[in-house]
Amino acid sequence: MMPAYRMKHGLLQESHPLTPLLLACSLLLLCLLSSNPLSQLSAIAASAILALSSGVLREWASWWKLCLVVFIMALVINPLVARAGATVIWQGPSLPVLGRLQVTAEAVAFGAVMGLRLAAVIWVFALVTVLVDPDSVLGLLKGHGSRSALASALSMRMVPTTFRDASDLLDAQRARGLVRDSGGRLTKLKSRLPLVRRMLATSLDRGIGMAEAMESRGYGSSRRTRYREYALRGRDVAGLSAAACIAVVVISGVASGALTVSFYPRLSMDHPAGAMIAAAVPVLAALALLGLSRLWKRSNWLKSRI
Amino acid sequence: MRKSTVAFLVLLGFLGLWAVGESLEIGVLSNLAFMTLVAVALVLAYFYLRFEERRSDTKLVALIATMSALSVGGRCLFAAIPGVQPSTFIVIITGYVYGPLAGFMVGATTALVSNIFLGHGPWTIWQMFAWGLAGLVSGLLGRWRLLEGRWSLAWYCAAWGLLFGWILNVYFVLGFVHPVTTGAFLATYAASAWFDALHAAGNFVFAFALGPVMIAMLRRYQARFFFEHVAPSPPGGQGEGGFHAGSGHDVTEVEVPGS
Lengths: 306, 259
What we know:
The complex is a heterodimer.
Chain A: H1 18-33, H2 37-53, H3 57-61, H4 64-81, E1 88-95, E2 99-104, H5 105-131, H6 134-141, H7 146-175, H8 185-216, H9 234-256, E3 261-262, E4 268-269, H10 272-298, H11 300-305
Antiparallel strand pairs in A: 1-2, 3-4
Chain B: H1 3-24, H2 32-53, H3 58-77, H4 87-98, H5 100-118, H6 123-142, H7 150-176, H8 182-225, E1 227-230, E2 242-245, E3 252-255
Antiparallel strand pairs in B: 1-2, 2-3
Helix pairs in contact in B: 1-2, 2-5, 2-6, 2-7, 3-4, 3-5, 4-5, 4-6, 4-8, 5-6, 6-7, 7-8
């Protein structure tokens, strides 16, 4: 399992949940709209800095194995299926469906950049996972998607209860001698099958009981009221400004062609200086937030102000 | 106009825009990674809005939460064995008994909630889509009770094990492989064949061992708790007061004793 959200009281974790979400969205735009390797590296670096600013760098970095696997997959598959590219570096046998194998330097470069893009996207999602409390995201949806948000929140709450039920039922069945702990795997499994039926019945009973409790408290009888738990503060303005800055640079970089890279027939970057500037902005924005976060942690005055 | 209708029209407009962008190779509009993500998000938004627009039914919300929790628990429990998970099977039987929308919601919620424990990624939205689709299609099949036999259900669940993997591969091929050719799809499917086969085998075993029993239990709960009171018809009318049992597609009229 991947590391889940843990509150470390960093600047972004203490912000309105929309702030880290919109920051992640701006980084996702950077990853998905641009195929420039500098953009992908910039998104990864910015994610790492933002994770560092909230003290969750170790948790964020623990996704590296998954990123490596997808990177290798994209790196291997692309050169195998691409026939374009002027610089042939290897010619292999002819295979059914794939045809004659031919690996070009351009296809390898494209595969590497796509692998980098996939890794960057995964790391941006990792940033959201370690920075944003899932409860607060569901809380944001309360006013807009009450029934689906309620179903998700209830489901999240019921998972630990389901495990506890399973453990209790297993103990009860074991005490009655109905569960076999000896013998082959199949015997053990067979003796546990009735448990699944009991689990389903117990869970459904609990669900129905919960629904009746909600109805008796007036759920669904009229338009619901809601309490706004979160308010936008100065720290959110800083985070949202950084997100807006990144989004504007990405969109203008893509529109002007500064972030464009051509892979076929030969590798070429039309505006390397423009690409470097566009790639530097997300990193600088993240560094600015890191600096603010450090100051914010040390200064009680700043904490009270923003 | 309903919000879901607006979402549907936006989806159609977006697909049209995408087709134009793709044919004319207009920058962002021909960026498959971005465009497929937005298209799938719009499809999910449409079904979520459909669910929101339904008449408030607390029991259905609780049922979706319960079945999703079971599905998430099962997925976490089997997380160590790649591909094997009872989630697809649970989504399918829920859709089959309680209808397409309930099936879709259990599928989408399973992906959303289980990834809070297992890790979110670009795959989350595609898993929501694939499991949602499994629940939706099973709900449609449930209207004609096409999966009543143990074997037919088991083979159907196994097929969804493969289909689920194939849908998830689409985002990889469209977003991160170029050119998008049959060879690209086959190479990706070959790379994931082992996981897809395990998923299909797991689904087959779960459905074969537990399918008919669990479907019968879900139907029993449906008959017990999912009914609506039908108001007595005016004097002179032909109908009598009673209950409609069931939710969504499977509505059976139950006579009130003594009415």
